[in-house]
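Repro:
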Amino acid sequence: MSALALADLLPTAATFTALRRLVKSQAARRPGVYEFLDATGGTIYVGKAKDLRSRLLSYFTAPWPESKSARLVRCASHIQWRCLPSEFAALLEEQRLISRLRPAYNVRGNLRRGRLSFVTLTGDPAPRLRVTEQTQGRGAFYYGPFAARGRTADAIRTLGDLLGLRDCSDRTPMKFADQPSLFDTPLPALCLRHELGTCLAPCAAHCSASGYGDATRRAAAFLDGRSAHPLEVVLDAMADAAEAGAFERAARWLEKFEALEWLFGALARLRAAVEGLSFVYAVEDGSGESDDRVYLVRHGIVRAEAPWPRTPLERQAFAAEIARHAAPEESAPAARTAPEMDQLLLVMSWFRRYPEEYEQTTPYRVWQEGGS
């Protein structure tokens, strides 16, 4: 793009003034979502507000150039917004818009998670266990969230070493042993972990694809809470070392056991906490527009929403939604996709910030039986 064409796309001071005038004249003091658009009509940022007018006007008074808000509004050619019945509704819509539009400024600058971390089992031909602070992989599954990143990383490293999972770059080519047409003999491993017995070395044809797949499935079973086999392996090794009088080796195995036990327990506590996030949640419209809403929350995910049922027929229809989403009574999943994890974090954060909102929740069975 030429310098002249690029300049044509950049907002001017007149645009800045016009946007401020637009907000002052039309933005309401209501909850809602807003979008900053560039000259091509593309969304560059999505936000939510409890008070749209106050939030949008704050962009125009933010200190320039150190404030991100000031820089952002000067990149915009247009602002559009939509009022919603509550702050909770605005939070949900903001997340949906970000997930669908993937605005550049949200992806680069969203720091809302703080120091939370997640565990993911990658989808490579030879999957790896990773600890990450982002949930941006559209096809990946995530476990967590965890507040103690260092402790989580130690436990995941222990689990990976125990099962022989690789930790090399995703660009490392894999050469499985059941590809004899490609390799005559096993190749030298690309790192020392194979020599140390902590990696199956799928990079050098030291294991088959099925053998590595078995190790991956054992890792998933442990993270899902379906198997404690890695803990049993460590306990046996610790007992053997103690019986042989190798007390230093036994102490190292004890450290591994404590790391894995902490991770197993942390995942179990997370699943139990998410189990409690299953209910019907009623949210009143704070604007006086009589747009009260009701949400079906299942394991921390909003599965359905509707205007507050004001007739027996409407209530029966929402009860049918409960029956469809809440049965069978399966336990909360351990792993979640990126959009599911994002919404779980939103719901958990909402009720942690506003614990009094639990008073507006109703168990499924009570709702279906006619209570509220």
